[in-house]
Design goal:
The protein is of the alpha+beta class. It contains eleven helices and 16 strands.
């Protein structure tokens, strides 16, 4: 996976707080202020995210100076740029000068909502902010527009962009490895969630052509699945032996639930290769779960031996 370095400047802390959260999502990652940048970072990292706060209608000059001093190698790297400000989507125009400086290697831009407290402002910034609020006819008061969902969405966008250049294995070959791996196991961890309720449950499964078939008694996981059809599944090798000695797979998908009387209820048992007559005779009800897989993230050291990236992504046909 591409390694990310977030280079930033902050004056009152909101950019720094955002950057620390960004590094969690963009990992493997590190963050540093411009003055703390080390020359070896140029080769240790593959993806560079540059960002700073906006002051007096301009992005922090320290970041602009850093880009000017390092433009020779930044112009050859994959780069994203963001600004932290209070101007909503209009804040994107603050990054335009930086994009022009760096050039075509900028693959993404973004705006992060910030905040300010009047008692933290310098006298100069206090006057600037007071004028700004009077101009937009808003009360001049402490403002906090930070939004974790928006920040997370931006980071996920960057993560999707930064990870596209790994050495991909041909898709049909990758699918064969995925099918073989899934068919060589019969237990996964099923992850479900709804609001504050999350659950992971080891379950037995049967895999067939992009679908998981699971039969289970009732439980907490169904509370989540009734509210949210999106699930995650994880499989890993307990011992480093065999073809897939060091491997693990994380999958996402959507579920369909089947209870007695539903069309296709018995089909789930048959697909899971389970004895319908015996299980349906239990005192409690056994329920069917059909998972349509959407994505697989397959980590296997064998991909490196084949000359490809150790982590491969696969999107199942819709």
């Amino acid at each position: 996976m591409a390694r990310t370095l977030v280079i930033y400047e902050t004056r009152y802390g909101s950019t720094e707080e955002a950057v620390k959260k960004m590094s969690l999502i963009l990992g493997p990652a590190r963050y540093c202020r411009t003055a703390d940048f080390k020359p070896e970072y140029r080769t240790q990292f593959d993806f560079f995210v540059l960002g700073a706060g906006v002051y007096n209608e301009f992005i922090d000059q320290r970041l602009s100076d850093f880009i000017t001093a390092n433009i020779d190698w930044l112009a050859e790297k994959k780069v994203a740029v963001f600004a932290t400000c209070l101007s909503g989507i209009r804040g994107l125009h603050y990054v335009d000068p930086l994009v022009k400086m760096i050039g075509k290697t900028v693959v993404a831009t973004g705006m992060i909502d910030g905040r300010f407290r009047k008692d933290q402002l310098t006298s100069e910034d206090f006057a600037i902010m007071k004028h700004f609020y009077e101009m937009v006819k808003m009360p001049f008061e402490d403002t906090d527009r930070t939004s974790l969902p928006k920040l997370t969405e931006f980071c996920l966008k960057l993560k999707a962009i930064k990870d596209v250049d790994y050495k991909k294995i041909p898709e049909d070959e990758l699918r064969k490895h995925i099918d073989e791996y899934l068919n060589s196991h019969d237990v996964c961890v099923l992850g479900t969630g709804s609001g504050e309720h999350v659950r992971t449950t080891p379950v037995t499964y049967k895999y067939r052509d992009g679908f998981f078939y699971i039969v289970s008694e009732g439980g907490n996981k169904f509370a989540n699945m009734l509210a949210n059809s999106h699930v995650s599944l994880s499989i890993y090798n307990e011992t480093p032996s065999g073809k897939f000695g060091r491997a693990g797979m994380q999958l996402t998908g959507t579920i369909s639930l089947f209870t007695p009387g539903d069309a296709g209820y018995r089909d789930i048992f048959e697909a899971a290769e389970l004895n319908f007559k015996r299980l349906s005779s239990l005192p409690w009800i056994m329920n069917g779960i059909k998972v349509k897989l959407s994505n697989a993230e397959f980590r296997w050291s064998g991909f490196s031996d084949l000359g490809h990236g150790r982590v491969q992504q696969y999107n199942f046909p819709v």
